[in-house]
Structure prediction request, 370 residues.
Amino acid sequence: MKATIERAVLLKSLGHVQSVVERRNTIPILSNVLIEAVDGGGLKLMATDLDLQIVETVDAQVEQAGATTVSAHTLFDIARKLPEGSQVSLEAAEGKMAVNAGRARFNLSTLPRDDFPVIAEGELPTTFELPAATLRDMIDKTRFAISTEETRYYLNGIFVHVSDDDQPVMKAAATDGHRLARYTIARPDGAEGMPDVIIPRKCVAELRKMLDELDGTVEVALSDGKIRFGLGTAVMTSKLIDGTFPDYNRVIPTGNDKLLKIDPRAFEEGVDRVATIATEKTRAVKMGLDTDKITLTVTSPENGTASEEVAGAYGADGFEIGFNARYLLDILGQLHGDDIEVHLADAAAPTLIRENDKAAALYVLMPMRV
Prediction:
């Protein structure tokens, strides 16, 4: 194999694929990236951790077609440190790959491409397209609520499903048992009848990184076991979480009759300020609701107390309720507009937070005892 590629093109592509590769691997070949020089020009780069795989095809001058695998992180670090604007020559033969650019020379060990595992996609019967911007929003508005508890593995991702509400919709939801985030869009053409799927946390993170550089649309194809995203020059394939996502609709309150309308930025800044003295153990911020004002209080045995009043439109009976400050800030960070709706019932019931009843995003937060 022999090919020449621009350093910037190589670096960008390696940046996409190498982040899939785990730093510690018991199987040596999983530390490698597969590089294939294709007849007629072009390099194909591929990396996998057996659950997630990214393949990207980039422009390159190919003198001799062929393929090999080389340490992904090492090659990425080399590409990062090569001079800007340089042409990088990659030449593989007899278990070694020479990487040359300008006066720099590297000779890296390789492993045979035949040992490199590939995720077999099988049939992916459901296919549809989504604008990259819509997919970005869908991820940003929900992923902070993904659980990191390995024991409840079925919560370690974003649940995507279609349903017929007033009109056909697609919903993305994530929860860790303390908070729930849901985002709703119109159902894309081709998604009718799709199976309910849980997209794993790592796939969501890698996908989100690649969406930053993408305009236009993303092609999505899925079955009940795998999902594939077509992202311009790259294709990402992931196994889905094999589990049943709980019926989250049961925790979305419908009878919360106390309504607070408040500026999300003033609310967020107030919570952030009083939470400065909160410790890991006492992340609780207490909200005292009174006519048209909220008093935010944090009490920490080690650090003392903090309180701040925030203006808000509230006309129901006054009461106190506590929330985890970090969870509240995560939700407020996703809400925009001049004011938001906080629907409350009492100090023990889940609270519903949204921009308005037409908003695509909806959040539920469980209170804390304070």
